[in-house]
Amino acid sequence: MIVAEVARLEQLVPEERLYPEKLMQDLKAAGKNADYLFDADAVVMHTSTNVQGGDIVVVFSNGGFGGIQGKLMERLAA
């Protein structure tokens, strides 16, 4: 699992925010493999070097996130 930067986090009141650092701590404490990466290029690089045949990659984003979908498809096709 990869979690990336949460855009416009400051627009939410603190009680409604997702805190990636806390999420990472909770996931790792539960024995889950998770990484926090800052931007789309880091996610693409990490994913393309770790994905294996038959894996399913899902991107959840509330926006374009630096063109991640196209970058990821291009990198995985290479």
List keywords for this structure.
3 helices, 2 strands, two-stranded parallel sheet, 78 residues, mainly alpha
Percent strand equals 5-15%
Number of domains: 1
* Tally of DSSP β-strands: 2
CA-based gyration radius = 14 Å
The total count of helices amounts to 3
What order do the SSEs take from the amino end to the carboxyl end, as H and E? Answer: EHEHH
| Strand arrangement across the biggest beta sheet | 1-2
Structural class: mainly alpha
Shape: flat
The averaged pLDDT comes out at: 88
Helix content: 25-40%
Low-confidence segments, given as residue ranges, are none
Biggest β-sheet description = 2 strands, parallel
The N- and C-terminal alpha carbons lie at a distance of 22 Å
If you had to describe this structure to a student in words, what would you say it looks like?
By secondary structure, the protein is mainly alpha-helical. It has one domain. 40% of the residues lie in helices and 8% in strands. It has three helices and two strands. A two-stranded parallel sheet has the order 1-2. Helix 2 runs parallel beside helix 3. It is flat, with a radius of gyration of 14 Å. The protein starts with a strand and ends with a helix.
Give a short synopsis of this structure.
With 78 residues, the chain is mostly helical. 40% of the residues lie in helices and 8% in strands.
Sequence-ordered SSE layout with sheet pairings:
Blueprint: E1 2-4, H1 20-29, E2 35-37, H2 40-50, H3 68-77
Parallel strand pairs: 1-2
Helix pairs in contact: 2-3
